[in-house]
Amino acid sequence: MSAVSVAAALGERGHLVLPIGIDKSGGWHLADPDARPFATAGPLVSLSVPEGHLLGPQGAVDVDVAFPVLHGPYGEDGTIQGLFEIAGIPYVGSGVLGSAVSMDKDVAKRLFRGAGLPIGDFRLVRAAAFHDDPGGVIGEIGSDLGYPVFAKPANLGSSVGISRASDEGELKDAIQEALEHDSKVLVEAEMPGREIEVAVLEGPRASVPGEIVVRSGWYTYSAKYEEEGTELIVPASLSEAAAAVVQHLACDAFETLECTGLARVDFFYQGGRGFILNEVNTMPGFTPKSMFPMMWAASGMPYPDLCDELVRLAMAR
After folding, report:
1. If DSSP codes are grouped into helix, strand and coil, which group holds residue 292?
2. 232 φψ region: left (φ > 0), alpha (ψ -120 to 50), beta (else)
3. Mean per-residue pLDDT for 52-77?
4. Distance between CA atoms of residues 233 and 236, nearest Å
5. Residue 277 has pLDDT above 90, yes or no
6. How many helices (H) and strands (E) does the chain have?
7. Domains of the chain by range and CATH?
8. H or E stretch at 263
9. Pairwise pLDDT comparison (169 vs 160), residue with the higher score
10. Angle between helices 134-145 and 168-179 (to 10 degrees)
11. What Rg value do the Cα atoms of the chain yield, rounded?
C-alpha cells in the first residue's frame, strides 16, 4: 500500500506516475494504476542499460526519476540502486553505499561505534563459527551479554527472523532461526526503554520525534502490521531538550552511514542512559499512516509535499 499511496500523492502534485511491480522471480511488470493494491500481473517491461529507457509494449519510455518503494533485500540494500546508477536514472533515497551499510546492521553498528554514537551491547555470530561450535558461541554470548537477548539476521527488516531468548536453549533456537535468513546474525542485549523514532531528510533535516508503544510484548512483525495493540504517538512526549538531543543524534547517524534522500532513525530511550541508537531504515513504511510521513506531517510537511520533496531531492542530486 506504500506504493499506492506514493503514486496517488505524486499524481496530486502533477507528476505522471508509471507504477512498476516486481514479481518474485524478478520480472518487471507494468501495473494497473487503478488496482488496489498494485499487482504484478501486467505486461512485462525491462530497463535498458545504459540508456535508461523503460522498454514495454508501447516502445521506449524516458524515465525522469525512480521512486523505489521497496523494502528489504534487493530493494533497500543497494542492489536496485546500483542498477539505477548504471542506467543513469535519478532515484529517491540513499545511494549504493548508504543503502548497503544501513541494511547490514553489523556494519552499521561498527560505524556508529567508530563515530562515537551511543549503541547497545551486541555480538556478531557468523554461520561457520556457530556450526563449528554452537555451545561455545552461545556460552560466550551468555557470559558477555547475559539474558534476555535478541537474535536477528544482519540484513533484514520488519522484524523478520528476530527472536527473543531468555536462556541458552532459546538462544540456540533463535540463532538457528536467524541463520535461515542470513549468514550473519546479530545478538543484542535487551534494551528496556521507550522506542523513539526520528524521520530525517537530506540536509540533514530532522522531524519531530515519534514514539511506538507496544501494549504487550515487543515490536514483532505482527505487532507492526497485523495487531491493534500498537500505538503510534506523534509527536513523542519528550522535553524540548530531549527532542533536540535525539534529532541531533538522528542527523549524525544519517551522515555516518552516508545516507541521502531519507531515512528513519530508531532509538531506545532510557531515563538514566539517555538515547541508544538502534538502527537506520532507508526506505521505511510509506503510507500516510506510517511513522515517517506522520512525523513529517507533524513537522509541517503534509504527505503529498513530502513525496514531492523526495522527487525534487533525487533530481537535484
Report:
1. helix
2. beta
3. 93
4. 6
5. yes
6. 11, 15
7. 2-71 (no CATH), 99-118+192-316 (3.30.470.20), 122-189 (3.30.1490.20)
8. strand 262-270
9. 169
10. 110
11. 20
